């Protein structure tokens, strides 16, 4: 009786969730997926039934990463709250059948709609848009077979009122752009392949009968991102042709992201000249060939710029300071800067400079002082070697940027100059980064206790001090300046990799341990760190960075052996919030012990392993998939035979597809000649976000699309 009375007393003194105020409950419910709120939570009690239908929860419905949603759930959701939805995001819902789009017609009050990555035909799009008279923002894909002539007059009337359009092109086409006569923001993603599945070369010419008069007169933002290939370049020139005739007066953001060589033409030169005369920009990104060797930046006018990208340009630091920052002009408005691959951006001149020469610290200091509110900074894919002078190290100067949320640096930029000068090369530094005969070396031991590690490094390491000063950093990329992934976009897998920079040879476990100071870290990328001996720093990261959601590791330590496997498995046991894991390492063994450790990552959704000569255990993979119920993407490109890969892929799909509608499995030999054909079938969401390696810091302007 005493025990029962004590339990009753505890219950009476306990907190009942329903006793919270409506404001607090609404805030809690805002973290619950809308499908769960409407289809499950609201059926539990009367109070929640009312709160779950509150306008603050039904106004915006996000399904873009709700991997458990299916056609029936979407149908029921639209029936229950369709009229209350003003913004609907279904981006990347590749697993939903095209008929699911028909239910969007119930959302009569829609203002913003994102269907990127969804299967939508011309006729379905026409039927849907005909009923959405209030629509002002639209994102769609244009696939082969799209026919603008099938769009009804009611559909075109809706499109004429759309002011924001995001269009991903998989075929040469204007899509719906000519119908959008009120465009203010236009985002174009060109994903057109040069060859068809049958092997025929494609042309960049548009379909006969398509209008070639896009309406740009009200345009404020123009953004184009091109995948590799000449067809994408041909098609984007057609979109730019109209801009070159008459530049919109209100244009304030002009961004073109193009890999490789994208030559300037007479039309594009006229466009840039017109922009220099008539507009003041807030955001700018141009292909490197349009900037290199030209005086364009000297003539362009800027208002309150918030984003600059000079990725892969030969722009020198002197030009950067004089033409962009105007000799130290106050640029507090600039929040995002991408200098990835801009090898001379921290040097006064580029004419007689070698890429490996020391940087000019005064240029970086001017940049830091002028752009003191930077939140996103990318300095990767270049050799930024600090001079020996005290106080002028790159890490010391960057520590002044207290507002940084994301940062990308080359490995050689974080090494301690004094340590490199004073210490002779160790045995580990001399180990060849090749696949030849393995060299046996002594393994240096590192303390696993974080406080011990801190005591060792806090006085001597400039990188440790930098990590300590950027307490609110959410994304960090440390990438070798000569690193290239074994999986490029539209080419066969790379068989040989370049050796790391000499300055990077000392970067290893202690530097990784320094990262554990970033309490709020959500995304971490480490590539080509040569001096990883045990991987002990990874354990510190797993213990201290409890918000980590994305982890990408590539080519750490010796290339002939995965020296950090034990530490990685210890780390994974602590990563309860990890959702995306990408591993790229030769000779990686994806066996039972690895997958058992990975099973501790209860939130894991996507896994990608790229390993030349790597092996896997099929039983271990199946057991892992059975234990980790949230996993919906499994990509493995290993050294196994085609038969082993196909059998495992079929087994996973057969066993788990029914319960996981979004399941996407690709298991294929890395060096197989048909790899590129397999890659083209991967949903763009996974391909762009995890499967392909790239630096993502400041890749696009912040808040480019909702």
TrEMBL record:
Domain F-box: 14-61
Stated name of the protein: F-box/LRR-repeat protein 18
PANTHER family recorded: F-BOX AND LEUCINE-RICH REPEAT PROTEIN 18 (PTHR16134:SF19), F-BOX/TPR REPEAT PROTEIN POF3 (PTHR16134)
Alphabetical GO biological process terms: SCF-dependent proteasomal ubiquitin-dependent protein catabolic process
GO-annotated cellular components: SCF ubiquitin ligase complex
Lineage top rank: taxon: Eukaryota
InterPro entries: F-box-like_dom_sf, F-box_dom, FBXL18_F-box, FBXL18_LRR, LRR_dom_sf
């Amino acid at each position: 009786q005493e025990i029962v009375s004590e339990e009753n007393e505890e219950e009476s003194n306990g907190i009942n969730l329903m006793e919270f105020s409506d404001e607090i409950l609404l805030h809690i419910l805002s973290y619950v997926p809308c499908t769960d709120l409407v289809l499950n939570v609201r059926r539990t009690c009367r109070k929640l039934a009312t709160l779950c239908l509150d306008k603050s929860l039904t106004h915006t419905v996000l399904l873009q990463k709700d991997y458990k949603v299916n056609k029936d759930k979407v149908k029921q959701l639209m029936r229950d709250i369709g009229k209350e939805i003003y913004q609907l995001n279904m981006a990347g819902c590749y697993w939903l059948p095209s008929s699911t789009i028909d239910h969007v017609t119930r959302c009569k009050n829609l203002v913003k709609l994102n269907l990127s990555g969804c299967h939508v035909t011309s006729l379905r799009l026409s039927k849907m848009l005909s009923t959405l008279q209030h629509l002002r923002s639209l994102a769609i894909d244009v696939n082969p077979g799209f026919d603008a002539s099938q769009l009804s007059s009611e559909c075109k009337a809706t499109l004429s009122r759309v002011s924001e359009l995001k269009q991903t092109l998989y075929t040469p086409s204007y899509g719906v752009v000519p119908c959008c006569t009120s465009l203010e923001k236009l985002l174009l993603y060109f994903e057109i392949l040069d060859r068809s599945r049958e092997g025929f070369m494609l042309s960049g010419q548009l379909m006969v009968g398509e209008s070639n008069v896009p309406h740009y007169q009200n345009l404020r933002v123009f953004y184009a991102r091109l995948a590799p290939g000449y067809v994408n370049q041909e098609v984007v020139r057609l979109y730019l042709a109209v801009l070159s005739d008459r530049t919109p007066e209100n244009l304030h953001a002009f961004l073109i992201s193009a890999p490789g060589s994208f030559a300037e033409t007479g039309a594009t030169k006229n466009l840039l000249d017109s922009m220099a005369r008539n507009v003041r920009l807030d955001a700018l990104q141009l292909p490197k060939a349009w900037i290199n060797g030209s005086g364009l930046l000297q003539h362009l006018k800027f208002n309150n710029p918030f984003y600059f990208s000079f990725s892969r340009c030969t722009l020198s630091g002197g030009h950067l300071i004089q033409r962009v920052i105007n000799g130290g002009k106050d640029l507090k408005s600039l929040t995002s800067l991408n200098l990835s691959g801009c090898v001379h951006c921290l040097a006064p001149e580029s004419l007689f400079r070698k890429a490996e020469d020391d940087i000019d610290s005064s240029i970086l200091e001017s940049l830091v002082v002028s752009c003191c509110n930077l939140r996103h900074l990318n300095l990767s894919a270049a050799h930024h070697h600090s001079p020996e002078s005290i106080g002028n190290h790159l890490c010391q100067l960057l520590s002044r940027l207290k507002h940084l949320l994301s940062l990308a640096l080359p490995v050689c930029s974080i090494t301690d100059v004094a340590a490199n000068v004073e210490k002779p090369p160790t045995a580990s530094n001399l180990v060849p980064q090749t696949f030849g005969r393995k060299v046996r070396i002594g393994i240096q031991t590192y303390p696993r206790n974080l406080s011990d590690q801190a005591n060792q490094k806090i006085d001597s390491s400039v990188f440790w001090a930098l990590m300590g000063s950027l307490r609110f950093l959410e994304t960090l990329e440390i990438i070798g300046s000569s690193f290239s992934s074994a999986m490029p976009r539209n080419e066969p897998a790379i068989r040989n990799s370049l050796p790391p920079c000499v300055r990077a040879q000392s970067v290893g476990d202690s530097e990784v341990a320094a990262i554990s100071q970033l309490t709020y870290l959500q995304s971490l990328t480490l590539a080509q760190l040569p001096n990883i001996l045990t991987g002990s720093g990874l354990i510190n990261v797993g213990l201290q960075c409890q918000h980590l959601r994305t982890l990408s590791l590539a080519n750490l330590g010796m290339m002939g052996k995965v020296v950090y496997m034990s530490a990685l498995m210890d780390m994974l046991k602590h990563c309860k919030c990890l959702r995306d894991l990408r591993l790229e390492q030769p000779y990686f063994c994806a066996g039972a012990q690895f997958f058992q450790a990975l099973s501790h990552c209860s939130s894991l959704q996507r896994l990608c392993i790229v390993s030349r000569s790597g092996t896997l255990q099929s039983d271990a993979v199946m057991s892992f998939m059975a234990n980790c119920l949230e996993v919906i993407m499994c990509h493995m490109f290993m050294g196994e035979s085609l038969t082993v890969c196909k059998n495992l892929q079929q087994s996973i799909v057969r066993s788990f597809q029914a319960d996981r509608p979004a399941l996407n499995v690709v298991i294929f030999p890395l060096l197989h000649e048909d790899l590129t054909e397999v890659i083209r079938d991967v949903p763009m969401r996974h391909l762009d976000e995890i499967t392909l390696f790239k630096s993502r810091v400041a890749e696009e302007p912040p808040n480019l699309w909702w």
